[in-house]
């Protein structure tokens, strides 16, 4: 009689095995590429970077509108492990930042890990296997851990306006710019006066026939201290890297000093507000227009913009500022909330992104099949901006309450990557498969965070910003310095977590014929 043996034998008709990786990274912007670099440095090479588009770059790939540039100094807006001595300007433009990310991809050997055209359609936690099933437009993977680096500036937000679908002209969002459409001589409406609009308006104003700007709330604008980086500076930073590190350190220290005014002593911002008031006076001679462009809230409550050309562009003869939001569209006529009507050929929406309601949350399903969108229906929250109870081994880069109002997001990204690598290392050291924050630890962290938020200018400044969710809670920004966040994410405290071990596999019993 044949002996009974235990082994696994796939059926000839079984579908192809789903590839398994240690880590699946969603997105290939700064967060996703940074995760790839840090994983490789930690000796973890079994990972994929899933990108819905056909190239890396994230928001710096998508946002290619005229005038697009960073409002953080170049030498601070780069990875500490990948300094760039060749930045062309003190505030570099979108093409240079995107080129930097392409260089990082090649320098650190990330190309083999990239999967383009792989938009994630579902992330589902499989409790029976203690792993994630990652469904994408390019196939399915399973993974021990998922890093969500899709980012908050990924999905454009366009208001649901009556009649917009029937507008006969051209319509696009700032992050989906139509470069084939020539604006020369056209009547163009720009809806919104945020950071993107403040760059678009000066770039297109000289060539459009008529520019109409719909402004619900004016922004505070400061001068932009931008200049070309000299050849000598580039040579010095390339030949003597410590000089580049010194420059980065000085920029970092200056912004750390400013934090206290934003988070604890908003009254100190009065000095900065006076500089902004003088900037308006220099750029706008017409008192009536100047009044429309002067905010009635404290500077810093909404994002502070940097531009030397924004006010002159709005004051130009072919420009009109409508101090009212857009209410509806009637054919080619735009009707403002104040009842005024404006004929246009094209509409450019500079209306931001889905930040407090990140669309990826609708595609993530954790323990018990509960969606992240349901978990966050009363507002986003995570432990240390990185992990969420009920969603084991899901790590966020630029998660809830990790945004900044005055410094470089790359500093925050690198802190969260430290936390990610320490978590994966800790799992290996204790022989566990996954971890999730305890409900108690997550709640305690967020109660303390929101308590600190009460003193900040974003809460007390008298404005309504995109930092706030529908309930009025600030679930976007970090109420402290980047140094304090780095300390808070330096190590994973396993006392804040529940550990999960993968069930032992049950082998199929097969009796040979």
Automatic annotation (TrEMBL):
<comment type="similarity">
    <text>Belongs to the FAD-binding monooxygenase family.</text>
</comment>
<protein>
    <recommendedName>
        <fullName>Baeyer-Villiger monooxygenase</fullName>
    </recommendedName>
</protein>
<keyword id="KW-0521">NADP</keyword>
<keyword id="KW-0285">Flavoprotein</keyword>
<dbReference type="InterPro" id="IPR036188">
    <property type="entry name" value="FAD/NAD-bd_sf"/>
</dbReference>
<dbReference type="GO" id="GO:0050661">
    <property type="term" value="F:NADP binding"/>
</dbReference>
<dbReference type="InterPro" id="IPR020946">
    <property type="entry name" value="Flavin_mOase-like"/>
</dbReference>
<dbReference type="GO" id="GO:0004499">
    <property type="term" value="F:N,N-dimethylaniline monooxygenase activity"/>
</dbReference>
<dbReference type="GO" id="GO:0050660">
    <property type="term" value="F:flavin adenine dinucleotide binding"/>
</dbReference>
<dbReference type="InterPro" id="IPR051209">
    <property type="entry name" value="FAD-bind_Monooxygenase_sf"/>
</dbReference>
<dbReference type="Pfam" id="PF00743">
    <property type="entry name" value="FMO-like"/>
</dbReference>
<keyword id="KW-0274">FAD</keyword>
<comment type="function">
    <text>Catalyzes a Baeyer-Villiger oxidation reaction, i.e. the insertion of an oxygen atom into a carbon-carbon bond adjacent to a carbonyl, which converts ketones to esters or lactones using NADPH and/or NADH as an electron donor. Thus, can convert bicyclo[3.2.0]hept-2-en-6-one into the oxidative lactone products 2-oxabicyclo[3.3.0]oct-6-en-3-one and 3-oxabicyclo[3.3.0]oct-6-en-2-one. Is also able to catalyze the sulfoxidation of methyl phenyl sulfide (thioanisole).</text>
</comment>
<keyword id="KW-0503">Monooxygenase</keyword>
<keyword id="KW-0560">Oxidoreductase</keyword>
């Amino acid at each position: 009689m044949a002996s009974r043996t235990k082994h696994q034998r796939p059926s000839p008709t079984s579908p192809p095995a789903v590839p398994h990786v240690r880590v699946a990274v969603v997105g290939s912007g700064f967060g996703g590429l940074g995760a790839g670099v840090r994983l490789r440095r930690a000796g973890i090479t079994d990972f994929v970077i899933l990108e819905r588009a056909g190239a890396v770059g994230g928001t710096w790939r998508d946002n290619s509108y005229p005038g697009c540039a960073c409002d953080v100094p170049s030498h601070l807006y780069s990875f500490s492990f990948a300094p760039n001595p060749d930045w062309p300007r003190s505030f570099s433009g979108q093409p240079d930042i995107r080129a930097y990310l392409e260089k990082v991809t090649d320098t650190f050997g990330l190309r083999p890990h990239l999967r383009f055209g792989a938009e994630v359609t579902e992330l589902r936690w499989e409790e029976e296997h203690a792993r994630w099933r990652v469904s994408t437009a390019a196939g399915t993977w399973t993974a021990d851990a998922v890093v969500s680096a899709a980012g908050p500036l990924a999905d454009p937000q366009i208001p649901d306006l009556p009649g917009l679908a029937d507008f006969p002209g051209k319509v696009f969002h700032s992050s989906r710019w139509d470069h084939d459409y020539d604006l020369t001589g056209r009547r163009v409406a720009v809806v919104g006066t945020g950071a993107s609009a403040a760059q678009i308006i000066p770039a297109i104003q000289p060539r459009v026939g008529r520019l109409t700007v719909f402004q619900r709330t004016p922004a505070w604008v400061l001068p932009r201290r931008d200049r070309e980086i000299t050849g000598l500076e580039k040579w010095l930073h390339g030949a003597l890297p410590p000089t580049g590190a010194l420059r980065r350190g000085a920029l970092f220290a200056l912004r750390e000093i400013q934090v206290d005014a934003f988070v604890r002593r908003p009254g100190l911002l009065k000095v900065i507000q006076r500089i902004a008031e003088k900037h308006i006076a220099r750029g706008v001679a017409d008192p009536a227009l100047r009044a429309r462009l002067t905010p009635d809230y404290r500077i810093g409550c909404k994002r502070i913009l940097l531009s030397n050309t924004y006010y002159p562009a709005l004051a130009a003869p072919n420009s009109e500022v409508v101090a009212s939001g857009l209410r509806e569209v009637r054919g080619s006529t735009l009707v403002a909330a104040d009842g005024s009507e404006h004929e246009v050929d094209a509409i450019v929406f500079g209306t931001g992104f889905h930040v407090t309601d990140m669309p990826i949350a609708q595609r993530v399903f954790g323990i018990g099949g509960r969606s992240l969108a349901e978990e966050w229906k009363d507002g986003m929250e995570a432990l240390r901006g990185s992990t969420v109870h009920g969603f084991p081994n899901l790590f966020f880069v630029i998660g809830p309450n990790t945004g900044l109002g005055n410094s470089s997001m790359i500093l925050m990204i690198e802190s969260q990557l430290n936390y990610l690598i320490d978590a994966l290392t800790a799992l290996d050291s204790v022989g566990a498969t996954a971890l999730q924050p305890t409900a108690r630890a997550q709640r305690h962290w967020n109660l303390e965070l929101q308590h600190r938020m009460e003193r900040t200018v974003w809460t007390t400044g008298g404005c309504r910003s995109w930092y706030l969710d529908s309930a009025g809670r600030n679930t976007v920004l970090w109420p402290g310095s980047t140094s304090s966040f780095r300390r808070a994410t330096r190590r994973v405290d396993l006392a804040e977590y529940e550990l999960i071990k993968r069930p032992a596999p049950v082998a199929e019993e097969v009796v040979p014929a």
